[in-house]
Amino acid sequence: MWNWTYAMSIIPPLLQALKVTVSATLVAFAIAMFGGLLLALCRRSRFKPLSWIAGAVVEFIRSTPLLVQLYFIFYVLPLYGLSLSPFAAGVLGLGLHYSAYMSEVYRSGIEAVPRGQWEASTALNFTKVQTWIRVVLPQAVPPVVPVLGNYLIVMFKETPILSAITLVEMLQKAQILGSESFRYLEPFTIIGLLFLIVSYPSSILVRRLETRLNRK
Amino acid sequence: MGVQLNVIDGEQLSIDRPIVRYSQVSKSFGDLQVLKQIDIDIAPAEKLAIIGPSGSGKTTIARLLMTLEEPTSGTIEVDGEFLWHQEVKGKLVRANEKHLHRVRGNIGMVFQHFNLFPHMKILRNVTEAPIKVLGLSIEEATERAVTMLEKVGLATKLDAYPSQLSGGQKQRVAIARALVMKPKVMLFDEVTSALDPELVGEVLEVIKEIALEGEMAMLLITHEMGFARDVADRVVFTDGGQIVEQGSPADLFGNPESPRLQAFLSRFRSGWQAGL
User: Fold this and answer.
1) Above 0.85 for ipTM, yes or no?
2) For residues B206 and A101, what is the distance between their CA atoms, to the nearest angstrom?
3) Is residue B252 assigned to a domain?
4) B90: three-class secondary structure by DSSP
């Protein structure tokens, strides 16, 4: 049966854990956003080796489980000299994993920009960099913002997986509290609600952002 | 428009100090050869119209000059300099991007489908390149842009987005956008073909005015025969990737010699003869 006293008492530590979850999500998302764009640009490069490597990276990441990638970063890399904290390994793994998916999203956005835009840029003698920054990306990115925004919410809900590499985020905290008190109902209900309270308004914000960006 | 042309033989006209020279230019897309050893000169400030059936290679001639396609063989010179090649240690090699960028600055182009930047207002569409490519200040670029937009009759649309304009208005903006870069050669690739008929006239009027100012060479790829006859100093007829016939508008339209040109023009007879 639900115990309100106990529930109230565990809210502060769970909110602390929520902070960890949210910050992990945001950092991982930033890595995925920039990594994804970088991968998309490399895949379009006319320098064949670069384009091939980027393609191979994307395929590899998409074909292996996130959990395996996280274990590799957290447990295997230290053997080669790179020791990362659970938080750093977690955001790196999560960020790299989703950068592969986001690169596909960017790619579709870039390919949707009509060829005439590239040709008009050439006719006006823009450099390649100017063409990307002033003409192509401003048209490629706004239409894919909703999809990118959805990945933000997906990554937020994916953070419990980071508990596997000992990061004490919300799920891990709930498990710890539960095993201390033998009461699992309140911790898991509360974190479920916390996930909902953060995800749902976020998805509304993403939709609002989509409308604003695509108004023109 | 007086232009010095030296007739070498019946097939070729060579010009002293041309602004553009194509020498034995061929272009193939895979197995399909679209241009076959084309030789053509354009004189400074000359208005050259290119007519011909679809697939005859006329658009490719323009695209090669605008560096949108690379020649399979042959050379193109712009104002005495090779466009696609540069001399390295006395040998002609494929030009690097820096060289291409420099020579490309002499050429401007207006496209059939306008290609305005949809995420920029009209004024910014026209000022972006002068600021970013020519390095003009915002004030100078804006002044140039406003003057040009006034010239094409769109000074009231500075704050509009391209999606809010008609096809004819968009094309006039596209012309202004290309003109502010002050190219030595302007390419017009079937610029009225995508327009509703009632909007074609306003665009042709603008181009006629530009032609009368006389400073730029103009390469007009067009199906508007009456327009070609009014504006061009010389008309070139292409078919099957080659130049079949060329001459003054009066000669070409009034007295076509080759059977292919006669056949081509007969398809237009009802259309343009009304405009004679």
Assistant:
1) yes
2) 49
3) yes
4) coil
